[in-house]
Design goal:
The structure holds two protein chains of two kinds.
Chain A: H1 2-32, E1 33-42, H2 49-68, E2 72-73, E3 79-88, H3 93-105, E4 111-113, H4 118-131, E5 135-137, E6 153-155, H5 165-174, E7 180-186, H6 189-204, E8 208-215, H7 223-232, E9 236-240, H8 243-255, E10 262-265, E11 285-288, H9 298-304, E12 307-308, H10 313-324, H11 330-349, H12 354-362, E13 365-368, E14 371-374, E15 391-398, E16 401-408
Parallel strand pairs in A: 1-3, 1-4, 4-5, 5-6, 7-8, 7-9, 9-10, 12-13
Antiparallel strand pairs in A: 2-3, 11-15, 13-14, 15-16
Helix pairs in contact in A: 2-11, 3-4, 11-12
Chain B: H1 3-31, H2 38-54, H3 60-83, H4 91-113, E1 126-129, E2 132-135, H5 136-158, H6 160-170, H7 172-177, H8 182-205, H9 215-229, H10 234-254, H11 260-274
Antiparallel strand pairs in B: 1-2
The chains are: A alpha/beta, B mainly alpha.
């Protein structure tokens, strides 16, 4: 009997041990795969719809590619897969804070990507910081967001203070006799930041600012501004705001034959759909964060002595066109880039812990298809993009077609600048 | 700066404002109803022309004519469904009824069109008048407005139903005693007001982009114009519209454009305080 009890005890112990061993691989498997939630809001409706849709397309392409490549494998064997969670913010600041709070507290977002536009991003960045979640901002160039002491918010775009200054350099190089600039801009956070920086820069270079005026967001009648521009007789008209108002402004400048030699507007011209304006788009210059024509690859990284990361420009463009059957704009590239930076930071940190990923972003200095990326780590401007630079495009005629050409900086140019506008 | 450039742009857009306000003030004058669905109906006019142009390939000006006809019928239906039952109730009831119509239109429109901007991709270029460039679409809209106003006055003063409308407007009970079918005439009046709002929206769509929410701006302007020209006075509405347009056009000559609404609504309050019957006198 005693022997039977011993055998029974041994059998029970063996069963426990075997059970533990048998469950061990399953437990390891559960640890080895984890889904990371990327939270953001999309302006599926409202005035930022065009730009935001492209940005979200870019994010979704990145998600598709990273998951298609098997995710990220950490050194402990954990495989990270990615999913998105998003809501429509209706292009409204009022909705953003509520939705980002929900993304963090209810949906368990591990990382955040900003909505489109500086105004909406400013509202969402506060939530990211409050809840201690790393946020990559895309479509948000305003400098002031990064001057509020945030430590977890990182900018993908070239900041607003350097957004349109290159257009002045282009004007100076193309027409040394030009001396008069009119600045008409949207009265929102981003455009005002750009216009103020542009104003100072142009004045420092000796230009006379013959008109400096803002228009309300949602303005549809630009006739009073165009009348003022005509009266001021500038060599160049610079300014604008976002896609809708910028497109309307360009159209009415053309219809009223405003007469300046150069027109450079924010945001709208680099969008492929700007070409739908037809002749009104011809000759209009726009600052772009990235263009499909840009040749950025590993050889440039070698010249700079930094790492090249992610797809080349051509690979990104081809993948985007295959997925969406349209040419990517810089808003699409910016969305993709936000995801790519999260990916790189997780890889460098070998962790998804907020502090580790933030530290990896602080130390980042890489070249990607989008350009160089590194962040200011000072207390005054933490997270501000310091590596990336703008390029400038111009819509030019190619037979009956309108094509977008890079015209500045000259070393990256795909065509010469058409100056004065309409001289083609 | 060429003052005339500002003046002409304002004058031309003022005609369109006048047509929009005429729709509002006609309904008020005949029915004593403050139509809070006015802005939403202006938006319907914009989208009507947009759909006729973008989906059916019709010329925008033909689209405006069709929108006007559809507006007349739509207005009569709105009257029959939402307003007829409360036409004799206190003002609050008609306010709520028209506000409900407004919310229904905006709600359905937002669900169907979203709040994204639309644009009737149509331009007639500009003509040069001395130093002033004038957009031809604005010139056509002003001419269209004059034609619509003339037609409306011809209808009101030279046709049987026009006379019925004026009779109902002056004294509904007496008109009914004379055998005038007041319910039909009230529906017709609401239809005419809706038609004018739709036409104004259609004309605006030929030169400005718009969203489903754009009508609200023009509704507010219509109230200002109504007060300016005299509530219930269609000709006063046209003149008030032209005055407001000129005011909006000329103010940027003297100051930054963003100050214009401040002066505009300052003027609105001043007229309410010092000449509440409007510059041309309200309907008695």
């Amino acid at each position: 009997m005693r022997t039977f009890v011993k055998l029974l005890s041994l059998a029970i112990i063996a069963a426990f041990v075997l059970g533990a061993v048998a469950t061990f691989p399953a437990k390891t498997h559960a640890q080895s795969e984890r889904t990371i939630t990327i939270g953001f809001t999309a302006s599926q409706t409202g005035k930022y719809n065009v730009e935001s849709t492209r940005q979200i397309n870019g994010i979704n392409l990145w998600i598709e590619q990273i998951n298609g490549a098997g995710g990220i494998t950490l050194s402990n064997g954990t495989v990270l897969k990615f999913e998105t969670k998003f809501y429509d913010d209706e292009s409204s600041t009022d909705r953003v804070q509520e939705l980002y709070t929900r993304l963090v507290t209810q949906d368990g977002a591990d990382f955040l990507i900003s909505p489109y536009s500086s105004g909406l991003t400013d509202a969402s960045a506060l939530i990211a910081e409050q809840y201690g979640v790393v946020m990559l901002t895309a479509g948000a160039a305003s400098d002031s967001t990064y001057q509020k002491g945030f430590t977890l918010v990182y900018q993908t775009y070239t900041p607003a203070s350097r957004y349109l200054t290159g257009a002045v350099d282009l004007l100076a190089a193309t027409d040394p006799d030009a001396s008069r600039i009119a600045i008409v801009h949207e009265n929102d956070k981003f455009s005002t930041d750009v216009a103020n920086a542009l104003n100072s820069y142009a004045e420092d270079l000796g230009y006379e600012i013959v008109l400096f005026e803002g228009y309300d967001s949602g303005t549809t009648d630009f006739a009073p501004f165009i009348n003022k521009i005509e009266a001021a007789d500038p060599d160049a008209i610079l300014g604008g705001g976002h896609f809708q108002d910028g497109s309307t402004f360009a159209r009415q400048l053309y219809e009223k034959d405003a007469g300046a030699n150069m027109i450079a507007l924010l945001v709208a011209p680099p969008e492929p759909t700007f070409a739908e304006l037809g002749d009104a788009a011809l000759g209009v210059v726009g600052p772009s964060q990235w263009e499909p024509l840009a040749q950025i690859d590993a050889s440039k990284a070698e010249e700079l002595g930094i790492e090249f990361y992610g797809p080349s420009s051509q690979e990104f463009t081809a993948a985007y066109m295959e997925m969406y059957d349209e040419e990517p704009s810089y808003h699409a590239a910016g969305g993709y880039m936000a995801g790519l930076l999260i990916q790189k930071a997780i890889e460098d940190a070998d962790s998804t812990d907020t502090d580790d990923v933030a530290e990896a972003l602080d130390n980042l200095d890489i070249l990607t298809f989008f350009g160089r990326n590194s962040f200011d780590t000072s207390d005054d401007n933490h997270g501000l993009q310091v590596g990336h630079s703008m390029m400038y495009v111009q819509w030019q005629a190619d037979g009956d077609e309108l094509v977008k050409q890079i015209v500045f900086p000259f070393e990256a140019a795909s065509a010469e600048t058409v100056y004065p506008i309409g001289s083609e | 700066m060429d003052f005339f450039a500002f003046l002409i742009d304002g004058l031309l857009i003022g005609f369109v404002y006048g047509i929009a306000a005429m729709g509002l003030t006609l309904i008020w004058g005949v029915m004593n109803v403050i139509n809070l669905s006015h802005g939403a109906i202006i938006t319907l006019g914009m989208f009507g022309v947009y759909l006729a142009f973008a989906e059916l390939g019709l010329h925008p000006y033909l689209g405006i004519v069709l929108v006007g006809m559809a507006g007349l019928l739509t207005g009569m239906v709105i009257y029959a469904v939402a307003i007829h039952r409360v036409i004799n109730a206190p003002h609050l009831s008609t306010l709520l009824a028209t506000f409900a119509v407004n919310m229904i239109i905006i709600g359905i429109g937002t669900a169907y069109f979203t709040t994204n901007a639309r644009n009737v991709d149509f331009s007639l270029g500009s003509v040069k008048a001395g130093p002033v460039n004038i957009q031809v679409t604005r010139l056509v809209a002003a001419a269209f407005s004059v034609a619509v106003t003339g037609s409306l006055y011809f209808f009101l003063y030279r046709t049987k139903y026009g006379k019925y409308i004026r009779a109902v407007s002056n004294n509904r009970e007496a008109a009914e005693l004379m055998g005038i079918p007041s319910a039909f005439i009230l529906a017709l009046s609401f239809g005419l007001g809706t038609m004018l709002a739709g036409i104004a929206g259609g004309m605006i769509a030929t030169f400005f982009p718009f969203t489903i929410l754009s009508g609200g701006t023009y509704e507010v302007k219509s109230f200002v114009i109504g007060v300016l020209g005299g509530i219930g006075n269609p000709l006063g509405a046209l003149i008030g519209g032209i005055l407001l347009g000129i005011f909006e056009g000329v103010m940027p000559y003297f100051t930054e454009t963003s100050w214009v609404p401040v002066f505009e609504f300052g003027l609105f309050v001043a007229i309410l305080l010092f000449r509440p019957q409007g510059l041309l006198g309200a309907k008695k």
